[in-house]
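Field reference: sequence -> structure
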Amino acid sequence: MNIVYNAVPTIFKTGPFHKKVYIKKGWYNMITIIGLGAGDLNQMPLGIYKTLKNAKKIFLRTNLHPVVTDLINEGFIFQSFDYIYEKHDNFEDVYEEITQVLIDESAKCDLVYATPGHPMVAEKTVQLLLQSSAEVKVLGGASFLDAMFTSLKIDPVEGFQLLDATEFSSADVAFNQHVIFTQVYNAEMASNIKIPLLDILPYDFEVVIATAVGSSDEVIKKVPLFELDFETELNNLTSVYIPPVDKKLLYSQFSTLRDTVRTLRSPAGCPWDRAQTHESLIKNLREETEELIQSIHNEDDENLIEELGDVLLQVVLHAQIGEDDGFFTIDDVIRSLNEKLIRRHPHVFGGKKAATPEEAIAMWNEVKQQERK
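Structure field:
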């Protein structure tokens, strides 16, 4: 039992969340968080079952889970938070209200909060509770990932990435690894995955829709990427698997360009590329820049793409020479650029304001002068 003497606001900072939940003055009991696993009751660990059996009060994040019917048949009584999902238009408010209800209820007695899968895998409410001042204990539970690896016959040691379909960009995806998207509960979330991936992958690239893995209702279905959001049987137990992508399909990725230039500069690469130095490439950089400027004057977008690529090649070549000589890498170049852009735009990344281009450039120059000092 935890004694809280004053009302202390706890500020949550998980992703976009920055709201406050208050722990009121009083006596607070233990919130024990467990995972219901990915399948039915037969797959639930004995320790988790005993925790549920001994619980004074049980709350479920959602009753849309294969094991819930089994628990009802076993005589369990619990309260679901599905009604909170129906009240709000966004998940941020849902998760915050669930968290507040649990904290308030813990003032009355010890309670158990049960989530689908494992409580530490893709569970925002658990993260909010852990960051609050509530007394929290997290127990285990079988993750849906265990069942996914088994059903899809993949080994995560080869490289694995778990992403949230509700918030990601194609830049987040490690295409050379096994990638699993969670939260693909309807066609809109499937579109969130499909649209950015179509910028990288062929329209007919085969992906896997996995629903209710590890249960008797498990469905594994392969579809071409462009049909991903055409499926009508997506639900809260659906995930999407993207297998590792052949490098030949990833020519639009910066990492592929970096590997290409590294190969050209390797002992088995091109004699001309291997012979270049920073000094020898000055002439090339000047020529490519002039051709880029000419394509801009000509308003020729197709040629502009090619000339921008030629200038980018010069940048990557110089960075690879720096790496080969042991002085710097392209990561240092990108890090330095990011730091400078953020530092010189305090009106975007800081608390200052600039309403016009003139005010923005004045702020840039002011920060630049401070750097020189």
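Note: Residues 1-20 have pLDDT under 50 and may be disordered.
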